């Protein structure tokens, strides 16, 4: 599974255009109806040009990016995120990632990733690090 992965490999990116409709669905599931995320006036009062997206929604985008890349056999061990800039309504948010280290073991590999979200202008919004585990092919096929 992981034998073809190399340090420097990029994960296939994933993009979403965000708006109040996306944020409302996320807020409904997570009980996060905070005015700064729902009301432009509240966002403006806080110093932003509009309402802003939830930080944890960006973490969800990163989780989806990693999960899609890992496939069913891999496991996300950790994600740590630092929020540097807000997701503004109408922006296209792209989740990206790159392999930074591979620690091969007998039956698996522990893989470190740099992952992040960025806006339409390429500004990084949420730089993050993740650690994932992928089993060897033999282990995932039940041969070990």
Automatic annotation (TrEMBL):
Which InterPro entries does the UniProt entry name for this protein? HotDog_dom_sf, MaoC-like_dom
Domain named MaoC-like: which ranges? 14-105
Domain of life per record = Bacteria
Query: One of this protein's Pfam families, by short name?
Result: MaoC_dehydratas
| Family designation | Belongs to the enoyl-CoA hydratase/isomerase family.
Q: What is this protein called?
A: MaoC-like domain-containing protein
